[in-house]
Amino acid sequence: MIKVFIIDDSILVRTKIINILQDKEINVIGDAGNPIDALNIFKKVGLPDLFILDIEMPKMNGVEFLEKINTQRPTPVVIISSFVDEIVKNKLCNINSTIEMLPKTKMQNMNNFSKDLINKIHFLTNSNIKKPSNLPSSKIISIGSSTGGVQILEEIVSKINYGHKGIVIVQHMPESFTASFASRLNSLTRSEVVEAREGDIIKDSKIIIAKGGIHLEVYHAKDGFRVRFKDYKKVNFHKPSVNVLFKSVAENVGKRAMGIVLTGMGDDGAIGLKMMREAGALTYAQDEKSSIVYGMPKVALEIGGAMESLNINQIVEKINNFK
User: Fold this and answer.
1) Domain range enclosing 40
2) Active-site residue 290, yes or no?
3) Are residues 120 and 203 in the same domain?
4) pTM score > 0.70 for this model?
């Protein structure tokens, strides 16, 4: 399903568009009468795959909104407006989004307008979002975090580009919370975020969250890298353990991997990260300033597991550039 959000100060226009998009493999996750209200709604529903946007609106116009939202994540847009002058068109050309336009006058013929709108939505999302999907990852990114990791992971996941290499995450968290955490992250990104299932294949633009209460390993199958559960005693006082994940990545992925230790208490992940580095992987630790608890990354750096200490934006950059 394509997630769409509508921003237009006319409730009549919003209602008509919502009716058009019903049962079209399109999910309207929300609508708002102006961008300021929309920004508040995003905190609950997450960001969409595509915006339907007016230009002239109260509180903030459409161009200002796109300039603001694209600092967080460039997103395709269908602009439906009564009038777009040359000044606005020039500003839109400088915005890092793929944009299609539909004049509101076309709504006089709703049948043709409906077809045009749906075609534009599918064109934009197919060309900008779906190209890299469903490809088994040739490289793997493994991440471990604990105390404070939820907030940090939300920030990272909301900023990484679609098309990234497959990501496997161990966040120290009880079993009853990991499914809802995966769902929360899924709402913040175009990527697919899931709680781990036995045998899940690791794909580009896919993020797998380790299930609470059981260890998670990566292994090399005939059709690519997959994950599997291992049920034995806690390692470093945790189950799942970051060390268990990283050790399996070191042994099965080697130099085709990246490992990242984020905020957390204790030392889980440090030894595993060192094993990954010795196997030729790229390895990083979150820096002290951006860490909520500078325990796990500090130890990883001290024992030589991490090549470098990075802040959140630098970690995002490393993930986006890992090809």
Assistant:
1) 2-128
2) no
3) no
4) no
